[in-house]
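Researcher: Next entry in the queue.
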Amino acid sequence: MIGVLITAADVFVVLLLQRRGFRYIEALVAGLIGVIGLSFAYEMIVSNPSISAIIGGLLPSPQIVFNPSALYIAIGILGATVMPHNLYLHSSIVQTRNFERNETGRASAIRFATFDSTLALMLAFFINAAILILAAAAFHGTAHANVADIGDAYQLLSPMLGVPFASALFAIALLASGQNSTLTGTLAGQIVMEGFLDIRLKPWLRRLITRLIAIIPAVIVTAIAGERGAGQLLILSQVILSLQLSFAVVPLVQFTSDKLKMGRFVNPRWLMVILVEGNDVINIC
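Model: Structure for this entry, 285 residues:
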């Protein structure tokens, strides 16, 4: 029931803000990201992680290849960071910009869209990395090293770090993250329904349908398997997002590499090589 009420509230907020202009939605998303970033920045400071260990952790370990459990988690992290539906969202956001419909205006729009999507990916990377670093700094080498559930981590953060606000800020950051994901997911669902499926519905009904489709599996799993089942479903959904990357990236690369469609904005050859090789790595994984 709480999830349904939150979904309805999200739909109402998106409708209200979109009537005032897309910039208001962007401001809300930026504010939520700011809350997440500041919360985890504080958590990182009080947890005092090892800088050398962080740098070493950026290098992939052979264990990822040989350990199925580690590979499963790694694929999920990739999907949680580079979410394919956000590719559609950022592509659509370009059309809301106020730019002149000529070569100069399009060049400016593409430049800002590149900056926007790059910044979004970098923020997603740092936030996901902060969660892993915080968990390692707080629990590794302790009696709670086997903590793998968000609920357990929330309850243990303050006692382990000795800071009364650590657990509360962690909860606030997760709540802001969930609301941010809900807003962007709702908008992405709207874009897919209108642009790809050509389904025309009233805005409030369309957004309500897309959010209910997302929340119903979570409600069913939580009712059957409890909170731990919901946690496993979350990881599975991130793995599925990772597996869907090729279905979003390959058409995008093909489209932007077509000189007839893109004109002088076509992908340069060096970028095409990087994109093809990167996609091959994703497929191998």
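Model: The radius of gyration is 20 Å.
Researcher: Noted, moving on.
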